[in-house]
Design goal:
The structure holds two protein chains of two kinds. Chain A is mainly alpha-helical. Chain A has a single domain, classed as Orthogonal Bundle (MetI-like fold). Chain A has eleven helices and no strands. By secondary structure, chain B is mainly alpha-helical. Chain B folds into two domains: about 160 residues, no CATH class; about 220 residues, MetI-like (MetI-like fold, Orthogonal Bundle). Chain B has 16 helices and three strands. A three-stranded antiparallel sheet of chain B has the order 2-1-3. In chain B, helix 3 runs parallel beside helix 5. The chains are: A mainly alpha, B mainly alpha. Chains A and B meet through helix 5, helix 6, helix 9, helix 10 and helix 11 of A and helix 4, helix 9, helix 13, helix 14 and helix 15 of B.
C-alpha cells in the first residue's frame, strides 16, 4: 500500500534516507547503547563507587530489548488487525447497529489507566508473557478503533458518492478509497497505542516479564541507581526511536498527496 | 412481517445471549480456605443445581425477547432489568457465601469469578447502548448507577464479609484511606501546578513564536518518554541534589518518594495543559475580539471578560485530560515510593495476592471515571456556544 511521494520520486535513495535521519539516529543510539553498555562500566562505577555490581547482570541488554520489542510488536500487530477490522465492520451496513456502542466503549475505555488494565489482567489471565501481550492488546485496541472510526467517518460523503458513481463495489471502495484516505488518522492512533504500550510493557517487569523494565525494577528494589539508569535510558531511546519513525511515516503519507 | 415492526436490536440481543452463556459456562465464584491457597471455582449449576442455573438464565433471555421488537417502553424495561441485575449480583454472591462457605472457617475467602466480571462488563455495555437509544442525559445514568453502588456497598458489610476484596480492605482500612489521600494529593498538586505553569507558558508562547516551537518540542519529547523510565532518570539527579543541597534535603526531596513523582507528573501534565490553553486562547474568533474592543473595552477587560470565558471550556478539557492521565501515572509512581493506591497494586503483584491488586486498581478506575465525568460535565456547562440540551445531542 506504500506509494512514492509525488514529485519527490526522482530525488533518489539519498534524500529518502535523509528524511529518516531522526528515527535512524535514535535507533543507532539505542542499539549502540544496548550493545556497548558493558564498555560504560567505568562511567557507572564512577557514578556509584560503593556498589560491587554496576552493570545489570541477569540478561544481555540486546536480549531485553528484543523481548520488549517482541511483546510490543505482537500486541501492536494484533491490535491493528483487530482494531481496524472492528472499526471497518461497524461502519459497514451489516454492522452499523454496533457503531454507537463500539464508539462509546472505545472512548470510555481510554479513561482507564493502562496500569490498572495491566493489573486487572493479571488476576484474570495469570503471570507471564501472554497475559502481558493480551493486556497490551486490549488497551492498545482503543486508540486504534477510535481513530479508525474517526478517519472513516471523516471522509467527505461526496467522495464516496463519486466512488460509487465510478461503479466501485463495497470492498473496492473500502480498499481503494476509504482506507487510504483514513490512513493518516489511523497511523496517529497506532502511534498513540504503541507509545503507551512501550511504557506499559516496561511495567510488565513487575509481573515477572524480562524486558527493559527489569533493570529498573531490580535497581529500585536493590537500591542500585546504575541499573535504573541503564533500563531508563534504553526505554527512553526505544520510545523516541519508535515515535519518530511513526512521525516520519505520517508525514510521508500526507506528503504523498493522497492523504 | 409488517413494515411498522421495528427490527430487532441486535446489540442487546448479542450482549445478553453472551451473558446467558457466561452465566452457565463460567465459574461464578471461587472459594479458598485462606489467603494463600488458590480457590476452587464454582459454576452456577454447581451451586444451585442445573434447574436453578437455568432459572437464572431467564432474566437475560427476557431482555433478548424485549429487544426483539423494541419500542421506547420496552427499552426502558430492559434498562430497568439491567440496573436490577447489576444490583442483584452482590445479593447472588452473598447467597453463594451463605450456601457454600463453612461458617467454622473464618479465614475462608470468596473470590469473584469470571462469570460475574463478564456479566458486570456486558451489563455496562447494555447501559451504554440503551443510553444512546433512549437519548438519556448523562445525569440519568449516574442516578441509575446510584442504587447499584449502594447495593454493593451494603452487601460488603451484610453478607459479603467473606469476599476477599472486603477482607483485604478490612486488614488495611487506615492504609487505604491514607493511600487515597496521598493519591489525590499528588494528582491535585501536579494538575494544579501544571495549570498555573501551563497557563503562564501558553501566554508567553503567544508572545514569542520561538518559545512556542521550543516549548512544544520539549513537552512532546517528555510525553514520549515512558513513565517508568522518566521516574528512573529523575532518581539519580534528585538523589544527588538531596545529598548536596541542604535546603532541598530539609524539604524532603529524595531520589525516591514524592519529589521525582511530582516532577515527572508535572512534566507529563504540562503538554496537554499548555496545548489546550494555547489552542483555546488562539481559537477565540478575531471578530469577537474586534467588536469587544469596538465597545471600548480595555485590553485587560477584553482578556478577562471575552477571551478567557470563551477559552475556558477548552482549558477545562485540558484539565480533564491531564487529571485522568495523572491518576494513572500516580499509580506507577508507587514503584518509586511515592505512595498512593499503586502501592496496593504492586504489593499485590509481588505477593501474588490478586485481591490486593484489585483493592488498588478498582478505586483508581473509579477515580478516573469520576474525574472524567465531572470535568467533562463542567466543560460542557461552561461552553457558551451550546446550551445543555444541545450538549447532550452532540455527545450521544
Amino acid at each position: 500500500m506504500r506509494r512514492e511521494p509525488i514529485g519527490a520520486g526522482g530525488a533518489g535513495g539519498a534524500s529518502r534516507l535523509a528524511a529518516w535521519r531522526a528515527p535512524l539516529a535514535w535507533l543507532a543510539c539505542l542499539l549502540l547503547l544496548a550493545a556497548g553498555m558493558a564498555w560504560l562500566e567505568p562511567l557507572f562505577r564512577w557514578f556509584q563507587p560503593d556498589t560491587r555490581q554496576v552493570i545489570y547482570p541477569h540478561a544481555d541488554f540486546l536480549t531485553l530489548l528484543g523481548r520488549h520489542l517482541l511483546v510490543v510488536g505482537v500486541a501492536a500487530l494484533l491490535a491493528v488487525v483487530i482494531g481496524v477490522g472492528a472499526a471497518v465492520l461497524v461502519t459497514r451496513p451489516a454492522g452499523r447497529d454496533f457503531l454507537p456502542l463500539v464508539a462509546q466503549a472505545a472512548s470510555m475505555g481510554q479513561t482507564f489507566p493502562p496500569v490498572a488494565v495491566l493489573a486487572l489482567a493479571v488476576p484474570v489471565l495469570g503471570f507471564g508473557t501472554w497475559p502481558i501481550i493480551v493486556a497490551l492488546l486490549l488497551y492498545g485496541l482503543l486508540p486504534i478503533v477510535r481513530n479508525t472510526l474517526a478517519g472513516l467517518q471523516g471522509i467527505d460523503p461526496s467522495v464516496l458518492e463519486a466512488a460509487r458513481g465510478m461503479g466501485m463495489g463495497g470492498v473496492q471502495q473500502l480498499l481503494q478509497v476509504e482506507l487510504p484516505l483514513a490512513v493518516p488518522v489511523i497511523l496517529a492512533g497506532i502511534r498513540t497505542s504503541v507509545t503507551i504500550n512501550i511504557a506499559t510493557a516496561a511495567l510488565g517487569a513487575t509481573v515477572g516479564a524480562s524486558n527493559l523494565g527489569a533493570p529498573i525494577i531490580s535497581g529500585i528494589v536493590n537500591g542500585n541507581t546504575a541499573y535504573v539508569l541503564q533500563g531508563a535510558l534504553l526505554i527512553g531511546l526505544l520510545a523516541l526511536a519508535v515515535d519518530s519513525a511513526f512521525e516520519r511515516l505520517q508525514r510521508r503519507w500526507i506528503s504523498s498527496g493522497i492523504g | 412481517m409488517r413494515r411498522e415492526a421495528p427490527p430487532p436490536n441486535r446489540v442487546v440481543t448479542a450482549l445478553m445471549l453472551a451473558a446467558a452463556m457466561a452465566w452457565l459456562a463460567l465459574p461464578s465464584v471461587s472459594v479458598a480456605p485462606n489467603r494463600i491457597v488458590p480457590g476452587t471455582p464454582f459454576h452456577a449449576h454447581e451451586i444451585v443445581g442445573w434447574a436453578g442455573a437455568l432459572v437464572g438464565c431467564l432474566p437475560w433471555l427476557a431482555m433478548v425477547a424485549l429487544a426483539w421488537r423494541p419500542t421506547p417502553t420496552r427499552y426502558r424495561i430492559v434498562l430497568g432489568f439491567a440496573v436490577l441485575l447489576l444490583a442483584a449480583l452482590p445479593a447472588w454472591l452473598a447467597g453463594v457465601a451463605a450456601l457454600r462457605m463453612d461458617p467454622s472457617m473464618p479465614q475462608a475467602r470468596l473470590g469473584i469469578g469470571a462469570a460475574v466480571w463478564l456479566l458486570l462488563f456486558l451489563l455496562g455495555l447494555v447501559l451504554i447502548e440503551l443510553r444512546g437509544r433512549l437519548a438519556l442525559p448523562r445525569i440519568a445514568v449516574w442516578l441509575l448507577l446510584a442504587p447499584v453502588v449502594l447495593a454493593w456497598w451494603l452487601a460488603s458489610s451484610h453478607g459479603l464479609e467473606a469476599l476477599a476484596l472486603v477482607q483485604e480492605y478490612r486488614g488495611r482500612s487506615d492504609q487505604f484511606a491514607a493511600a487515597v489521600i496521598q493519591h489525590l494529593r499528588l494528582v491535585g498538586g501536579a494538575v494544579g501546578a501544571s495549570l498555573v505553569l501551563g497557563a503562564g507558558l501558553a501566554l508567553s508562547m503567544r508572545r514569542h513564536a520561538g518559545l512556542e516551537r521550543l516549548g512544544f518540542a520539549v513537552l512532546n519529547f517528555l510525553q514520549t518518554i515512558p513513565s517508568l523510565a522518566l521516574f528512573g532518570l529523575l532518581l539519580a539527579p534528585l538523589a544527588w541534589l538531596a545529598a548536596n543541597v541542604g535546603w532541598l534535603n530539609a524539604l524532603g526531596v529524595r531520589g525516591v518518594g514524592w519529589a521525582p513523582a511530582f516532577l515527572a507528573l508535572l512534566g507529563y501534565s504540562l503538554l496537554p495543559m499548555v496545548r489546550n490553553t494555547f489552542v483555546a486562547l488562539e481559537g477565540v474568533s478575531p471578530q469577537v475580539l474586534e467588536s469587544a474592543r469596538g465597545m471600548g473595552m480595555s485590553r485587560a477587560q477584553v482578556f478577562l471578560q471575552v477571551r478567557l470565558p470563551l477559552a475556558l471550556p477548552v482549558v477545562i478539557e485540558g484539565v480533564r485530560i491531564t487529571t485522568v492521565q495523572a491518576i494513572g501515572l500516580t499509580a506507577v509512581a508507587a514503584l518509586i515510593g511515592a505512595g498512593g493506591l499503586g502501592t496496593f497494586i504492586f504489593q499485590g503483584l509481588g505477593q501474588a495476592a490478586m485481591d490486593l491488586v484489585l483493592l488498588g486498581a478498582l478505586p483508581i478506575l473509579a477515580m478516573a471515571l469520576v474525574a472524567d465525568g465531572l470535568l467533562g460535565a463542567l466543560a460542557r456547562r461552561l461552553d457558551p456556544r451550546q446550551s445543555p440540551s444541545a450538549g447532550q445531542e452532540a455527545t450521544s
